[in-house]
Amino acid sequence: MESPWKPFLRENMRNPYPMYQQLRSTDPVHHARTGEWVITRYEDARAVLKDNRFLVGNRVEWLSKASAQHMDKWESFAVIVEALKSFLVFKNPPDHTVLRKLIMQAWSDKAVDQIIQENISELLLRIDASDFDLVSGIANPLPAMTMARIFGLPAEDYQYLESLSHKMIQSLDLYLTFRQIEKMEKATREFIAYFEKQAVIKKAKPDNGLLSRLLQMNDGLVPDHELIANCFFLFISGEETTAGLIELGLYHLITQNKMNSNWKDSTLSGLATDELLRYDSPLQIVVRMAAEDIMLGNTLIEKGGAVTVCLGAANRDPEKFQHPDQLQLDRSPNHHLSFGSGVHRCLGDWLAKKEFEILLAVLHERFHHFNILSAPQWKENMSMRSFQSFHLSCR
Ligand code: HEM
Questions:
Q1: Ligand 1 atom 19 nearest Cα
Q2: Residue 37's domain is classified under what CATH number?
């Protein structure tokens, strides 16, 4: 029988939900032709994410192996392989535990609201609200500007960092080509050189930004090069994901005539943001590797088996969510998996939600009519859902 798992079909990238529905109802632990196990039920997805025998890091292993087979290219991919190995999201306990604790201690949400408000005001001044591209005008720059200020970096550097981030986000693609890795290697070298230079400046003259706090709190716990790699990881992990939330969130609110909600009511806006995240998650897929033979329901996942967890499919599982294909902004409880689950659960969920909710509140304060001017162009990426462009008019 033909496999329903066709992540590269353009129509599935644009709308993966019918494919997920088919898999979930006929073969919820699906063995793909490419060898990995594809998980689409909520309970199975959550079980994999909560079980530390399912390791992270297989992407790094794959990259190392692929590079080793092409020794001529191996040298040139050394920087990205090393950087990915250091990323929090690709580390397993106990190393993961130490690094995560350090980053969580250094994070602070003080003054973040004000930073976001100021950034939104600045961006709105630059656009003509009656006809603008939400992606390049607000969704992409807002998270980069906000992260640059949280880190304590020169404000004007955000555009450079944003452009590097976009090259790196391909690391989340399900399958990578050498050309993509080449681009990522170059971006990684630039990112690392940038943060190394900034670290020298912050060591000489510390401030209250995240980079200074990380360097001060580290105190030898984690080697400096790992810390630098994770500054770079934090920057990219908050970029395209948050942009996706802004783009998809506004798209669904407008197309489903729900832009009239009162976004100043924090209870409602919190519930609505979670529902938008459940309904259409910016990050659709995370991957794991079985450290030993593991039974998932009635299926044996053999040691070394790769597992693709479809967060977007789990979020539409009718056994967990009533009327899962309906956007119900006051849905509660709403234990969606868009931020993952278990030890790797997203560290920046609060920040992404704040950026989205403050943006929505400001848009509602200033405008009353929101129209889509032309059909948005999807980015062709199965792991990350976002738009290439999305033209809006706000009056
Ligand atoms: C709507 C926006 C976001 C979504 C949908 C999202 C989603 C996720 C998901 C699904 C994971 C788990 C990955 C896994 O289990 O393999 C994750 C991890 C992570 N996210 Fe986010 N994220 C978002 C925004 C952010 C932001 C703004 C930041 C920080 C600036 C951030 C930082 C992180 C970090 C550091 C991890 C790794 C945690 C760990 O491995 O312990 N994320 N995110």
A1: 346
A2: 1.10.630.10
